[in-house]
Design a protein that fits this description.
The chain is α/β, with parallel strands linked by helices. The chain has seven helices and five strands, in the order H-H-E-H-E-H-E-H-H-E-E-H. Strands 1-3-2 form a three-stranded parallel sheet, sandwiched between helices. Bound molecules: farnesyl diphosphate. Pfam families: Prenyltransf.
C-alpha cells in the first residue's frame, strides 16, 4: 500500500492528521475498506495487506509512534466495519514486536471475526518475509526435535508442508496477484515464499487514490497469464 506519505504531502495533511480532517494513513485505510468491498463484488475472497513491516520500525520514532496510534484507532474502526461486511480478520507477523495494547487489540479482532467467511483479510504487521521464513524453519525444527525425542516420528527429514504450516501466512492460500502501488517494482520482503507463481502488478497510482478500475485492470492482466500460473501450481502439487 505504497504512496501514503506522498498522498498526505500532496493533500497538505499533517503527520497525525490534524489538518484537513484526515490523518496520513486515514485515506489509505478507507482505500483498503473500499478495495475490500470491490473484491467482494468481484469474487476475490482472500485479501492480504502489507500494513507495517519490521523495517518500518527503523523510521523516525515519532513517525512509528504516530503510525502505531493510528493503527490502534483503525483496529477499533475495523471491528465495526468487518462485521458489517462479514469479513474474517487475521494478522500475520511477529506480533511480539507490537505494544501490548496493539497486540491485544489484534487478537481480539481475530477472535471476534472468527465466524465470518464472506472474505478473509490478512493484515501483515511487524512482518517481513525473511523473518516469517526463519520463524517457520525454527518452529519446524523444534517440533521435529520433540517428535523424535518422544518417539512420535522416526524420520528426521523436515517436509516442505510442515514448514508451510508454520508460516504466519498459513491462514491464506498463496496469492494469485500481488499489487504494489506508488510506482515501485520490488517485493520488499513481502510474501517471498508465497509469491512463487503469483502475478506481480505494480502501478503508479498512490495507494489512497486506488480505484476500482486499477483493481479490474490488475485482474484482467492476471487472467491473461493465469493458465501458466495455475499450471505451475498444479504441477508443483503433483510432485
Ligand atoms: C488497520 C489497517 C490495515 C490500516 C492500514 C493503514 C495503512 C494504509 C497503512 C500503510 C502503512 C505504510 C507504511 C504504507 C507505505 O506507505 P508510505 O508511508 O511508505 O508512503 P510513501 O510510499 O509515500 O513513502
Amino acid at each position: 500500500m505504497d504512496g501514503n506519505r506522498r498522498y498526505a504531502k500532496k493533500q497538505k495533511l499533517s503527520h497525525d492528521g490534524a489538518a484537513g480532517g484526515g490523518g496520513r494513513y486515514d485515506a489509505g485505510f478507507w482505500a483498503l475498506m473500499v478495495m475490500l468491498l470491490y473484491c467482494q463484488e468481484l469474487g476475490v475472497k482472500y485479501i492480504t495487506a502489507y500494513a507495517f513491516s519490521i523495517d518500518n520500525f527503523k523510521r523516525k520514532p515519532e513517525e512509528v509512534e504516530s503510525l502505531m496510534t493510528s493503527m490502534l484507532e483503525k483496529f477499533h474502526l475495523l471491528d465495526i466495519l468487518v462485521k458489517l461486511l462479514a469479513v474474517r480478520v487475521h494478522f500475520a507477523g511477529n506480533l511480539e514486536l507490537l505494544s501490548n495494547e496493539l497486540r491485544a487489540s489484534a487478537m481480539e479482532l481475530t477472535e471476534a471475526t472468527a465466524a465470518y467467511s464472506k472474505s478473509v483479510l490478512t493484515i501483515c504487521i511487524a512482518y517481513t518475509s525473511r523473518d516469517e521464513i526463519l520463524h517457520a524453519v525454527r518452529e519446524s525444527c523444534e517440533q521435529k526435535r520433540i517428535d523424535l525425542e518422544f518417539g512420535n516420528d522416526d524420520d528426521d527429514e523436515i517436509k516442505l508442508m510442515k514448514v508451510e504450516k508454520n508460516m504466519y501466512m498459513a491462514v491464506a492460500p498463496d496469492p494469485d496477484i500481488i499489487i504494489r502501488t506508488g510506482g515501485e517494482n520490488r517485493l520488499s520482503n513481502f510474501l517471498l515464499w508465497q509469491s512463487c507463481w503469483s502475478h506481480l502488478h505494480s502501478m503508479w497510482v498512490l495507494w489512497p487514490e486506488i480505484g476500482v478500475w486499477n483493481l479490474v485492470f490488475a485482474i484482467l492482466n492476471f487472467q491473461r497469464n493465469k493458465t501458466y500460473c495455475l499450471d505451475m501450481k498444479k504441477k508443483e502439487k503433483e510432485l
